[in-house]
Structure prediction request, 148 residues.
Amino acid sequence: MGLVPDTPRPDASGKEVAETMRKTLMICVIAALTAMPLMASAQSSTDMPEGRSSEGYLFPKAAHPHDPSSAVTPSEATRDQDLIRQAQIALRDAGFEPGRIDGVMGPKTEAALRQFQAAEGLPQMGRLDGTTQKQLMAAQTPESNWRR
Prediction:
């Protein structure tokens, strides 16, 4: 017998089928319980990539990405997505390619933000900080707002 119990024979009784299902379920439970500490340690890791900090990212004030007591509510997440979507539209209208207008801060949006920041003489962080947001929204024309 391997990791997964053998499939019951076509002529197996209900008891044999139930026993096979019970064994399969137990293996799944054991696998899930074994994986839980690994997932918990991965989530509790607060290490940021070298040279990067959480400063300037779109976290609510006093929130920490791994602190469940400061979890982002759905309305805050929607507000952040709307803000990023507006920035993506403004970047596109200003001639910088942010990729898909989806409200997600992906690599193309970060690259477009860096290009915009360079053009405006701002620090090139690739993040939508307050200064970049003000400059970006000021550069947006009334016509581009109408097209949304």
Residues 68-146 form a domain with the Muramoyl-pentapeptide Carboxypeptidase; domain 1 fold (CATH 1.10.101). The chain has five helices and no strands. The CA atoms of residues 40 and 66 lie 11 Å apart. The chain has two domains: 1-42, 68-146.
